[in-house]
Amino acid sequence: MGLVCLSYRIYMIGFLFLLVIALLPAWIASEKGRSFVKWYIYGVLLWIIALLHSLLIKGSVIKCPKCLSTIDEKATVCKYCTHKITEDEKAEVMKARELKRAKMKKNVTIFLIVIAAYWLIFSVLLHSVLHVL
Ligand SMILES: [Zn+2]
Hints:
Elements: H1 2-21, H2 23-31, H3 36-45, H4 47-56, E1 61-63, E2 70-72, H5 87-132
Antiparallel strand pairs: 1-2
Helix pairs in contact: 1-5, 2-3, 2-4, 3-4
Bound molecules: zinc ion.
C-alpha cells in the first residue's frame, strides 16, 4: 500500500509540475503573437522541444486584418492578399493583443490556484484517507 501510494504521489506531483512548467513555452510563444492554448498543449506533450521551439521562432507576428493570414509584425503590406496595413490597423492589433494578454494573465492565475488546490487536496486529503484505511 505504501509503495503504491508513494509512486502515485510521485506521478501526481510530476504531472502537476508539468502542467505548470508548460506555461513557459506557451507564454514565450504568445508574446511573439502565437496562440497561447496551442503552445500550451504542445508544451504539455513535448515540453523541452516546445520550449526550445518557442525560443527559436523568429520575430512577432500579427494577423492580416483582411485575409487573417499570419504575417510579420513589421510588414506594411500583406504578402498573401497584398492588403496595405495602416498604422491604425496595427495599433488596433496591438490593443487587442494587450487585452488578450490581460485576460490570459487572469486565466493563468486562476489555473495556478486550481493546480495548487488540487495538489493540496491530493497530498493532504489522500494521505490522511490512506492512513485511516
Ligand atoms: Zn492579407
